[in-house]
Amino acid sequence: MEADGFVPSSTLESPAVERRVTGTIAATGFGILGNSVLDATGGFVGSFTPRMTGEPDFVSMLHRATPEPSASVEPEVDYEGLPQGAASSTHMLAGAVAGIMEHCLMYPVDCVKTRMQSLHPEPGARYRNVMDALQQIVRTEGLWRPIRGVNVLAVGAGPAHALYFACYEKIKFSLSDAVHPGTNSHFANGVAGCAATVLHDAIMNPAEVVKQRMQMFNSPYRGVLDCMGSLLRQEGPAAFYRSYTTQLTMNVPFQALHFMTYEYLQELLNPHRQYNPSSHVVSGALAGALAAATTTPLDVCKTLLNTQEAQAVHVIPSRYISGLSEAFRTVYRTGGVPAFFKGVQARVIYQMPSTAISWSVYEFFKYVITKRQHEKRLRGDRDGDK
C-alpha cells in the first residue's frame, strides 16, 4: 500500500512516482523516498534504515538538517538599478554636473581645437601643436584668453547633458528589455545614444555657435551678450542653428560609436557593472578618442559653419556658407583631403579626458545619489516596522 509520501522501493524508477514525491516535498517541506527522507531541495536528510552502532539516529540528523535562521543581510546597493520614481531625476542631476565639469575643465583645449581647424589661419594663429598653441595664446593674448566664452557653454551644458543622460538611460533599458531581455544590447546602446544626441544638440547648438565665434583669433566681440546681439542683428536667428543638421550628422555617429564602445569596454573591464572609477575613466577615454578621430572631418565642417570664417566665405558666391554639402565643398576646395583632418590631434586630446571626466563624474554622482536614496528607503522601512 502506498501512503501519501511513502513509496515502495519497487516503484522508485517510475516517472509518475517522481512527480508525486516532488509534489509532496513542495507541499510539506519534506518527503519520504524509500527509506530516505528528503528536504525541500531534494537533499538527503535522514533514513529509516536501522542504524549501526556509532551511527547517529534519524532524529539527530533531522535536527541538524534544519537550517539555522540566517541573520538579515542588507542588500548591496545596485546603482545601475535605480529606485523607482527617482531614476530620471538622478540621471538628470548626475548628467548636468558631468556635462558642466567636462566642458569647463577642457575648455582651453577646445579653444585650441577651434583655432587649429581654421582653413585660413592668420600669421599670429598658426600653431605647431596643442601645447605650442596654448603657450602662444597666453603669451600674446593674455592668461584668460583660452577660457573666453566658457560661461555660455556652462549655461548650455547643464540642461543639455541632463536631458542627454536621462534620455539615454531610459531608452537603453527599455529597448534592451525589448530586444534582449536581461542582457546588454549594443543595438539599444547605439539607438539610445542617437536619440539622446538629438535633444542634446538642440540645446547646445546656439551655445556652440557663440562659443566658437568668441574662440576665434581676433574675435571682434566684447562678450557673450555682444556676440549674441550681433548675430541676431546681422545674420538673424537662423545663425544659431545653421550648423544643427551638420552637428547631428556628426554627433549621431559620434555618440553611437562612443556609447557602443563605452558599453563594450565596460563589459570587458567591469562585467558586474559595479561602481569602478578606473574602469569608467579608461572606457570613457578610449571611447571618446575613437569617436573623435572618426568624426573629425564633420567637425571641421561644423566649425566652418559656426564661425563663417571670412577668408573661406570669400571663396563662394553666396553671403554665408550654409549646409553640410556647401561646407564640405568649401573645405575640399581650400585644402583638399588633409583639410578635413585639421585639428585632429587637438580634438582627440580634448575628447579623451573630456569623455573620461564626463563618464566618471556621471557614474560617481549616480552612485552617490542612488546610495542615499537606498539608505533613506531602508530608514523608512525600519521606522515603519517599529
Automatic annotation (TrEMBL):
It is a multi-pass membrane protein. Its main location: mitochondrion. It holds the Pfam family Mito_carr. InterPro entries: MCP_dom_sf, MCP_transmembrane. It is found in: Mitochondrion inner membrane. SUPFAM superfamilies: Mitochondrial carrier. Keywords: Ion transport, Iron, Iron transport, Membrane, Mitochondrion, Mitochondrion inner membrane, Repeat, Transmembrane, Transmembrane helix, Transport. One of its GO terms (molecular function) is ferrous iron transmembrane transporter activity. It catalyses: Fe(2+)(in) = Fe(2+)(out). GO terms for cellular component: mitochondrial inner membrane. Solcar repeats lie at residues 86-174, 184-268, 275-368. One of its GO terms (biological process) is iron import into the mitochondrion. Belongs to the mitochondrial carrier (TC 2.A.29) family. Mitochondrial iron transporter that mediates iron uptake. Probably required for heme synthesis of hemoproteins and Fe-S cluster assembly in non-erythroid cells. This is Solute carrier family 25 member 28. It comes from Poecilia latipinna (sailfin molly).
